[in-house]
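For the sake of clarity, the format in which proteins appear in this thesis is described at this point. Each number in the token line that follows is a code from a learned vocabulary of backbone shapes. One such record is shown here in full, so that the layout can be seen directly:
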Amino acid sequence: MVEELDLRINEYLQEKFSLSVSKSSYFLHSNWQEFCLSIGQDHSIDSFYLPRSFQAHLNQDSEFLTLNFLHEFFGHGLFAENHSKGRELHDLEQILYEEEKKNFQDKQIPIKELKSFREDNPVYKNIVQSYDENLNLQEGFAMWLEWLLAKEFLSEDAFWEKQEVYLRRFGKEYQNNISLVKEFISYSKTLTPHALLFDLGLPKHYDKNVLLEILNKIYGKKFDDLQLVLLYGSQKPESDIDLFIVDQESYNFFNGWLDVYAVKEDEIEMVIKNLDVGVTDALFTGELIHGSKDYLTNLKNRALSVPITEKAVYYNLSKSKEQKEYHEKLDDERQKKIALSYSLSYRRNALELKKGNKPLTLKKLKELYDFEKLEERTSY
């Protein structure tokens, strides 16, 4: 059963989430207690995953072998290979492994001596700290993916039956795991499974239909009021998803992974007239994922034809000041960096407009700035 599921599930994950398990391997053990004792693991647990070697180890005789396979190989394996925290933990484990080899000169290491060596090892302490800090993130994701895959390939009832058995076996402490996975499941049902993965920090893929499904969940009935939705920004797997929206009741929001810059439909004309580089950049670099192509074209043409005015220069300088003040009030370093970047961009845009240039995009603005700096350095 386990072997049959391996390929099928990987194909499913690749098609649905653009993710797969490629580095991990799994091992079925017929003498579980003996194996666990040989490596110093608790044999009362039927399975575990070792980030150091990307290995899932499973008790072959467990009544929940298949579910444990989903949990360890796909849940923890996917996290270890694709999440920044998972890769960080793997790298730390590799460093510790090299230090252990050097200290014990590649000999078979007795468990007692190994534990003693690790007690005072700073790398091991960092590993323990990383485990503790990300325990809910890792375990919550692994349990959620186990639930999702059980629902798709086995049965959801089988997943919950296992939780009841584990609750009786491990006591009240395991209730925390059940509460955790219920939170993850609720989130994925409310905002889609993709939204959950993005929120957890897994790599993003910028699929139009995926993003529209999330927006439908966020806006509900008001989704039909969205006149225009553009996907813009860097669109890197580890970056936030940047969306520019024109609607009737606009509001900006950032939830940790989705950054929405919205402008009211009755204000878009004024913003374009003032050549707001934050808006024109989205219009000229963004990908249309919802709304009329003709409407977008009209907005672009308006930006191209609008004359440069002193009011537009003043507007961009005001926006620069506004972003700088916002930067000074923020505590979050990431948000502070973004606000400062926009402050500089608005200021540079104002200076270019004053010279009679109309950059329209941040890329063009940077090119003009870099060219001017080059001219300054090469002038005699």
Remarks:
- The first helix runs from residue 2 to 17.
- The CA atoms of residues 124 and 338 lie 35 Å apart.
